[in-house]
Amino acid sequence: MLSRTADHLYWMSRCTERAENLARLLDVTYQMSLVPQTVDAEERNWGAILALNSLESAFAVSFDRVTAENVLRFMVADSHNPSSIISCLRSARENARAVRGTLTAEMWESINVTWLEMRTQNFDSILAGGVSEFFDWVKRRSAMTRGVTFGTMLQDEALSFIHLGGKLERADNTARILDVKYHVLRPNGDEETTDFYQWGALLRSLSAFEVYRKVYRDVITPARVAELLMLREDMPRSLRACTAGIARALDLVANAQSAETVRRAGLLSAQLRYARLDDIMAHGLHPYLTDFMDSIFDLGERINSDFLATAS
Amino acid sequence: MSAAFFNEMADAAGRPRPHYQAYADWLAASAAERIARKRAEADIAFRRVGITFAVYGEEAGAERLIPFDIIPRIIPAQEWRGLQAGLRQRVRALNAFLHDIYHSQEILRAGLIPREQVENNAQFRPEMIGVDPPGGIYAHIAGVDIVRAGDGEAYVLEDNLRVPSGVSYMIEDRRMMMRLFPELFSLHKIAPVQHYPDMLLENLRTVAPRGVVDPTVVLLTPGAYNSAYFEHTFLAQQMGVELVEGRDLFVLDDVVYMRTTQGKQRVDVIYRRLDDDFLDPLAFRKDSMLGVPGLLSAYRAGNVTLANAIGTGVADDKSIYPYVPEMIRFYLGEKALLNNVPTWMLRKPDDLAYVLAHLPELVVKEVHGAGGYGMLVGPASTRAEIEDFRARIIAAPEKYIAQPTLALSNCPTFIDGEFAGIAPRHIDLRPFVLSGSSIEMAPGGLTRVALRDGSLVVNSSQGGGTKDTWVLED
What we know:
Chain B: Pfam families: CP_ATPgrasp_2. The complex is a heterodimer of chains A (312) and B (474). By secondary structure, chain A is mostly helical.
């Protein structure tokens, strides 16, 4: 397969996944903002979303205050913000368009229709229609694209690069959400101040609320949330599940120069597989997640140079 | 004026011509609501599938749908056989001409075409002198534009020998017609066209460099912002070959490779949809980001086939067009089967004087222009536009040719807007002629229709649409 084709597939998948994760995060934050809270808390919650994507300074260029509406406007429909939902969907579609010959007709149609429908919207029409309805739409379109992808694509190298992009993006997103929310929610490291609603919201943003109940059958504690989102093999958005998926996909596409990348992906996956929560917490969750995100970034760079780069 | 136009569907008395009779009966018996619904369905389907083309000069990346008309253009078998013979002859002669001017130049030495007309032509590539492409084929894919004038006779308007486009619409229009109106295909014996990508792939494989047994064919595109990008992806997918951009290829020791996730892979045949100028920044335009450095050298070494060859533009240039009947006589010893449109060459003082005196009735074209840009249609222009063009001609007469305004034939077409309904619109025909070990073509071609009332310009960039083209079998 052409390196450039693999590159487009990989980014198409990353952008689709990113749009979905963003919709989840924004939706939950929005839902939470409906619960009575102080102006301080509102600013902290919405500011965390900007911090999550390192967008504070880009945001400050166009907006003077961190409010629910401003952050939503910036993260949903601002096409100058490369991390906004509209930008992710556009980019997913541009990448798909560049390799539409490699996609099945249903896949291309799904991604193209998502973009065509997105294009008819602006922030005011989204507000008027209800932001939660909009986020549902994003998740639904993403689910649909994923469904036709796995339901129609030949299971060859192309699909492996789609897997690789999706899993890498998801691993990064889960780690970021956990890292930022953990700090917002436990600024003092004080176990007693656990806010049921906020932790519930975090779980919901990762479709993990029901999963948590099913797995633990107990009250929500930060440590268990961290365990679920990092170390559970059977939780599809956990770091462990994502890294296992990355390692599997890399095994399938391995080439003459990728041995070190395959090794590092395998190592990362094994580390999560055999990690103990107590050790992580003793080491500190934030440094641990920072290391993890660095490893994911490193893998992304290595995948790029081993498989995707078009410069010789 | 309108009496002078040939009507494809009806004769002078307004009765359907025999080959249109079954269709006319069907149309008369079809409920208007059903037709309207089907037209809307076609529109939605084309947009969903993304059969669009980018338009130059509009917002970057803007995509527009090429309007599709549901009334087919029907050609009887007998007439198609005549056209086919004429096209074969013409393309053979054009390939012979290209081989000649890049080798012994006999036609120039015989004095049939002025030497400077060829050698000073911007499309003439001295790099190609002495190069021997496999099979002596230069124009592997030709898109020859044919119109029918008031007398009912077919004329060749131009020979597109560089990177002719539109064949994907020929195939998609057929697919759409079969989906919308399957019953029409049991009422008529319509020659199929969907095998064109197979013919093309077969053709490209037969022109691989000598000694290559199982050639790797790729399609080279300028990229997603090219107006014909849809077609590039379509053809690559239908042929099952890689769609590559310049940056996907590189040349090592005069051999072309593509970069793959498993390392480098050798490329034998490049169906390129990129103009000569952009092919190789080392040989042609230095600023080209779209090409492959070293490609010309690999090509000259005979390690890769380019289809079409470099330097074919000199044969489809409007200043060379008037000599095509001469070429047919010279190389084949035959009389041209297809008519050429009488053409005034404004570099000749007599022709210039005549044309300047008759601008309001003529069509003037830039010698190197294409796509309906940079032309004057006298009868459809205002005085100011004509005077503006006159100044441009006088400033550089050698850059223009002129032709009588052809009364392009009409075909009934659905139109929207204030006078919604069926109205006559002018059409042309672009058959796609493939040259390899033999000369093949899919029956018919792409019919383009000028949707604006009275317009004679069918180019999609100028608001033209397309129709399915039926060649009826006996």
